[in-house]
Amino acid sequence: MNRRVQHKAAHVTTRRLLDMKQGKEKISVLTAYDYTMARILDRAGVDVILVGDSASNVFAGHSTTLPITIEEMIYHAKAVVKGVQDESNRAMVVVDMPFMSYQISGDEALRNAGKIMKEHECDALKLEGGMIIADTVKRITDVGIPVMGHLGLMPQSIYKYGSYKVRAEEEREADQLLEDARALEESGAFAVVLEKIPSALAAEVTRSLTIPTIGIGAGVECDGQVLVINDILGLNREFHPRFVRQYADLNTVIEDAVKSYVHDVRERSFPSADESY
Ligand SMILES: Nc1nc(=O)c2c([nH]1)NC[C@@H]1CN(c3ccc(C(=O)N[C@@H](CCC(=O)O)C(=O)O)cc3)CN21
Ligand SMILES: CC(C)C(=O)C(=O)O
Ligand SMILES: [Mg+2]
């Protein structure tokens, strides 16, 4: 028996996520945008890696997710998929479809979904929206591409709302969100992200659906949780919404390391004889 194969944990599939919900095992999701980080996340055992369009913010420095292009998302996704493949190849890789790559028509959405899927071996795509994109979700899933939904705070619609405030606090909006979630499930979505909505509503959606819910600022009763990797590592100085738990202060770690390097170069203590040829 090939021991290497035997020791490799099974790649996380949409089926596995459904089983996890049924078995009440929580699903952990983090974003990644590059090869090095994807390898660390896969090694650490995260279930799903999301190549988020938040790359527009944290990688490219834009103030919203709107400017990132399909080509840029593919570039990040290729690096992440390669990282997972070179590590344990356990984590599922989901890629955000960027703003305006799926909203114009079902045809265009399908063409772009296929384009993203063909460039690398990611496992699924994520789209923002509910009933409005239900037909599109059905068309994409019908050809065999798994789709993750995204409801509540939808950053691609930020200019429609004008703020990043909590969503669906009023009963009418909450009812709409519940209907949107059901529409996504009926259209074939395998999971749905719930962003910045009241915990009680997220719990109700979670109970109402067969597919898993993945929360970000949506309480502990979601079937899983997602956060942006830069936020949990403390790489982001300015971004501190209360749903982020910071697990490290890499900002300080990196700044101190770079300061030491700059100092050593200036003082001529780097490189030493041992570090030279
Ligand atoms: N680094 C990063 N982390 C994220 O979670 C993230 C991104 N970028 N970019 C894309 C979207 C945007 N997201 C956001 C952005 C802002 C808030 C937020 O709560 N902002 C304010 C509150 C604004 C208000 O209440 O009016 C805050 O408290 O920081 C939440 C999610 C989540 N996503
Ligand atoms: C915050 C998550 C859910 C996301 O969509 C992103 O990182 O783009
Ligand atoms: Mg996103």
UniProtKB/TrEMBL annotation:
Pathway: Cofactor biosynthesis; (R)-pantothenate biosynthesis; (R)-pantoate from 3-methyl-2-oxobutanoate: step 1/2. Binds 1 Mg(2+) ion per subunit. It holds the Pfam family Pantoate_transf. InterPro entries: Pantoate_hydroxy_MeTrfase (IPR003700), Pyrv/PenolPyrv_kinase-like_dom (IPR015813), Pyrv_kinase-like_dom_sf (IPR040442). It is found in: Cytoplasm. It comes from the Bacteria. The active site is at residue 195. Homodecamer; pentamer of dimers. Belongs to the PanB family. This is 3-methyl-2-oxobutanoate hydroxymethyltransferase. It comes from Chlorobium ferrooxidans DSM 13031.
